[in-house]
């Protein structure tokens, strides 16, 4: 996922934003609904990218499901990719 992004600056910013999820991940982003219920989404890199993650409550681990660009109505949309990965 991350290495598929060619721009190193964007990769670094996404990685930095994902690392911030270590601290209070349940207070960051917004909870998702429908097929992505149980996941949360946080905006990154100038609001263009999204990081979709789950919180494992037992061990307080944060699992990044996917990250990418929001392209509503496109198969490459980050939410479309996340819902396919969770099937």
Give a short summary of the structure.
With 87 residues, the chain is α+β, with helices and mostly antiparallel strands.
Keywords:
87 residues; alpha+beta; YaeB-like fold; 2 helices; 4 strands; globular
Please describe the topology of this protein.
Layout: H1 8-19, E1 30-31, E2 39-44, E3 49-56, E4 61-69, H2 78-86
Antiparallel strand pairs: 1-2, 2-3, 3-4
From the alpha carbons, calculate the radius of gyration and give it in angstroms: 12 Å
What is the average of the pLDDT values? Answer: 85
Task: Give the N-to-C terminal Cα separation.
Answer: 18 Å
Shape: globular
Number of helices: 2
Q: Got a strand count?
A: 4
CATH architecture tag: 2-Layer Sandwich
Q: Please describe the biggest sheet, giving its number of strands, its sense, and whether it closes into a barrel.
A: 4 strands, antiparallel
Which percent bin holds the helix content?
10-25%
The top-level CATH class is Alpha Beta
The total tally of domains equals 1
What name does the CATH topology carry? YaeB-like fold
Strand content: 25-35%
- How do the SSEs run, as a string of H and E? HEEEEH
Output the structural class. Answer: alpha+beta
> How do the strands line up in the largest sheet?
1-2-3-4
Which regions contain 5 or more consecutive residues with pLDDT less than 50? Answer: none
């Amino acid at each position: 996922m991350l290495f598929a992004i060619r721009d190193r600056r964007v990769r670094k910013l996404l990685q930095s934003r994902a690392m911030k999820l270590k601290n209070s991940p349940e207070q960051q982003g917004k909870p998702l609904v429908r097929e992505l219920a149980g996941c949360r989404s946080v905006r990154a890199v100038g609001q263009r990218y999204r990081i979709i993650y789950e919180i494992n409550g037992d061990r307080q681990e944060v699992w990044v499901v996917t990250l990418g660009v929001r392209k509503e109505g496109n198969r490459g949309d980050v939410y479309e990719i996340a819902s396919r990965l969770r099937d």
